Amino acid sequence: MKLRFAIFMIVFIACTAVCAQNVLTVKGNFMYTDVSLANKGHLCNVNSLIDTGCSLCIVDSAFAVDSCGVKAGEAKVMYVNDDKTALSSVVIDSVSFCGSVYRDVNCLMADLDGIYQKYAPRFIIGADLLKSGVWKFDMQTKTVVRLADSKSVNGMAIKWKNHEDYPDVAMDYIIFDSKIKGRKTRFTFDTGTKYNKLERGLRPGKTEQIEKETANISTPLSGKTAEMCRNVEFVIGKTEFVLDFICSDYNTGLINIEFLHGHSFILDYPRRMLIVL
């Protein structure tokens, strides 16, 4: 009997360990992983964008109705972004990934397929789910793992701030204080942005015009001309980085995973800490 119990516990622990990690897919500077959505008796798995620059989860409106049992009439209206874009919102019974189950998840609904087109996910994992955990993004094994904590991990640690420090930024954004040529600036760590961007009014060097793709939750994908500064040196913590940046009119700059140069990293939300491995 004891032997059977021991075998059961070994199998249970092994299964739990496997369930606590997900396959991580990296395309360009975007990261994706699978999540399971359960709602009104419907259960579906969907490859989802991990977006630290999105406060709430977002589900594609057609997918929500066709596959998740959401009825259009039950959606409520929420206003998002500085331009007060009106979006529907709905509560999904549960969202599961990396061994964790999140109940009654408030999600925005948007025509992701129509807005982002070839880049469109059907579900976006927002900071409202990420903020409760410690997440290891392993670029070697291509996995994302939820850790118990990161206190024993060795790596380059960078503290971040959020809406509690800066009331002009959205809930649960990751904000890095930075300097460019001695001038103070801020960057939002946004894994949902294709381009790195400078904050409003910052031009640290010569610019050149480029053609780029642009889209956001209120504007469908299209091409536009933009100004770019190349080889911009900036400091976060005690470390200097070099990236190309688009000039923007945002109140903070944006940086994606490009500045990590392929390194694995940990996002420790409870301690507000990025650890580069």
What does this structure look like?
The chain is mostly beta strands. Helices cover 12% and strands 50% of the residues. The chain is built from four helices and 21 strands. The protein has helices at 2-19, 61-67, 112-116, 127-130, and strands at 21-23, 25-27, 30-39, 42-50, 57-60, 76-80, 85-97, 100-110, 123-125, 134-138, 143-147, 156-159, 175-180, 183-189, 197-198, 207-216, 219-236, 239-247, 253-255, 265-268, 273-276. Strands 13, 14, 15, 16, 17, 18 and 19 form a seven-stranded mixed beta sheet that branches. A six-stranded antiparallel beta sheet has the order 1-11-10-20-21-12. It has a six-stranded mixed beta barrel with strand order 3-4-9-5-8-7. A hairpin with a 2-residue loop joins strand 17 and strand 18 (239-247). The longest helix has 18 residues, at 2-19. The termini are far apart. Mean pLDDT is 90; it is low at 1-19.
**C-alpha Rg (nearest Å):** 20 Å
The global form is globular
Q: Tally the beta strands.
A: 21
Which percent band covers the strand fraction?
Answer: over 45%
Number of helices: 4
State the end-to-end distance: 44 Å
Label the structural class: mainly beta
Which residues form runs of ≥5 with pLDDT under 50? 1-19
